[in-house]
Design goal:
This protein has 182 residues and is an alpha+beta fold. Helix content is 37%, strand content 19%. α1 packs across α2.
């Protein structure tokens, strides 16, 4: 039986603008992933560090990478964004995570991140089922944090998620509330 005392929320449907498309990872896309991630200053722009991270974090399971790592392409076929649905262990529990969401700076502000996050949350439901999904971000990504909140993400007090101590909850909330002023 449905429990209609619980609020109903659906994943917002955010379609891509005309001409843009999604594609799954295939061999060779690791270079596109590195280019996109370093364009947003992840890994401090260090492409070798980014490539090492990709290989250690995702590419040890290439068949999973091929069904979990998504790229966003512009109308000319250029890879301009990426995100991955992966998993991490918090103690004995295996949790799905939305990882390394990035859109090249020159494409930001066009609604593409909304479409990418919406697509990834639907993909997570397909792969992981209807489960709580986590992501890690930082206060300097406050624009992305605001987007994530629109999709129902919130800063959790839950300790020791994956490798994150998660002991700066109050400080993060304070910084974000000052930035948002709402």
């Amino acid at each position: 039986m449905l429990d209609k005392s619980v609020p109903y929320y659906n994943i917002p449907d955010c379609p891509l603008p005309e001409g843009y498309s999604f594609s799954f990872f295939h061999d060779g896309n690791e270079h596109d992933w590195v280019d996109i991630e370093t364009s947003v200053l992840e890994f401090d722009g260090d492409k070798q560090r980014a490539m090492d991270k990709f290989h250690s974090h995702f590419y040890w399971a290439p068949e999973e990478t091929g069904r979990r790592c998504v790229f966003l392409k512009d109308p000319e076929g250029r890879y301009i964004g990426t995100a991955t649905i992966w998993w991490e262990y918090s103690g004995q529990r295996r949790d799905p995570w939305l990882s390394y969401v990035a859109i090249r700076p020159e494409y930001q502000g066009k609604g593409l991140s909304k479409a990418l996050v919406s697509h990834m949350l639907r993909l997570s439901q397909t792969i992981e089922g209807d489960r709580r999904i986590y992501l890690h971000t930082q206060t300097w990504s406050h624009i992305a944090v605001r987007l994530y909140k629109k999709f129902g993400f919130y800063i959790t007090r839950e300790p020791d998620l994956y490798k994150y101590r998660n002991d700066e909850y109050e400080q993060a909330e304070k910084v974000l509330s000052e930035l948002y002023d709402d």
